[in-house]
Design a protein that fits this description.
Length: 332
């Protein structure tokens, strides 16, 4: 659920007001409790004051009214288009690969909308960090919500990296608490903020702790999982994604089989300038099929169908085609 590209953008915000990453973590580890957390004394050390200043700035942005939050995010995304050259290049290459039928003018227009959406999603993410779930001020339309009830069986809640994924996860968690994988942040202040936010959704599980994830599923819990990024060659199959071979994790099959869980994909779309989120739970009844490559192909297909309805809302700034088949040319 927690994406490094998104946090890189968040880093631009607090670095912009003078913050710097700490030279070393605090001597004592921050303890994470899923419901209540107290600030470790080390995090109040003067070396972290610039970061806290950045956090205060993000807090102010998060508390903007929803409509103003959306407009500021769009403006920020427009700045990303002009100044985040590396991410813009990655997004442009992805769009060229995935939408060859578009003219160059159409792709440039889609690229600009895509970068604007990164800013909108970033501001939405900040709102989920600092705003109670029941006060986000967003209308939720959730079709098929009952499919997330396992009746004692674990449920893998599949999603994809849309720019508003943090908001979707928060809205789902309002009634369907779900555990999720996470990646620990290097900055201990940001890690504390995120751990506090994660705990409202469910129990955070380190991304490499599959044993704990399987145990949770076998207990009948839900696990929120995003299988649509390039996690490298290990445990991946090269299957089609927008008619291009993409290294796709087979962990969905592994989790479903080992956790004796059913798999449900949650289709997502932001509507009415962020005032409404439409979700639809779609059971993927053939996973696990016994063929991990076929399962990965089926997951990519349902994600692709979701993306095509609003392609600018997907996180194209990720290097989805970074890992290449043997002998294939690099994309980025």
């Amino acid at each position: 659920m927690y994406n490094t590209q998104r946090y890189a953008y968040a880093g631009l915000l607090y670095k912009g007001v003078g913050a710097r990453a700490p030279l070393e973590p605090p001597a004592e580890k921050t303890q994470c409790n899923s419901r209540t957390m107290t600030i470790q004394r080390q995090l109040l050390h003067p070396r972290y004051w610039p970061t806290w200043l950045g956090v205060a700035f993000m807090f102010v942005l998060a508390k903007l009214p929803q409509r103003l939050n959306y407009l500021v995010g769009k403006l920020l995304g427009s700045l990303f288009y002009y100044f985040a050259g590396g991410r813009r290049h990655v997004a442009a290459r992805n769009l060229a690969l995935c939408f060859p039928e578009l003219t160059e003018t159409e792709r440039r227009r889609l690229l600009k909308k895509t970068m604007q959406d990164q800013g909108i999603g970033l501001l939405e993410m900040l709102r989920t960090w600092f705003t109670p779930i029941d006060k986000l001020g967003v209308e939720l339309e959730f079709i098929g919500e009952e499919h997330l009830d396992g009746d004692g069986q674990g449920v893998i809640v599949l999603g994809a990296h849309f720019t508003f994924i943090d908001l979707s996860a928060a809205l789902i968690a309002r009634s369907k608490r779900s555990d999720s994988f996470y990646r620990k942040q290097k900055n201990p202040v940001i890690e504390w903020i995120l751990s506090r936010a994660r705990g409202r959704y469910g129990e955070p599980i380190h991304r490499r702790d599959f044993k704990r994830a399987l145990k949770s599923l076998r207990k009948g819990n839900r696990l929120f999982y995003l299988p649509d990024q390039d996690y490298g060659r290990k445990s991946a199959a090269f299957v089609t994604f927008f008619n291009n071979l993409a290294a796709t994790t087979v962990a969905t099959s592994t989790l479903a089989k080992g956790g004796r869980a059913k798999v449900v994909y949650v289709d997502q779309q932001r509507l009415e300038k962020g005032r409404r989120i439409r979700l639809e739970a779609i059971p993927l009844e053939n996973i696990p099929s016994g063929d991990p490559d076929a399962d990965a192909r089926a997951v990519n297909a349902v994600i692709e169908e979701n993306i095509r309805r609003a392609p600018e809302q997907y996180m194209w700034v990720h290097r989805r085609f970074k890992t290449r088949p043997e002998g294939a040319a690099k994309v980025y």
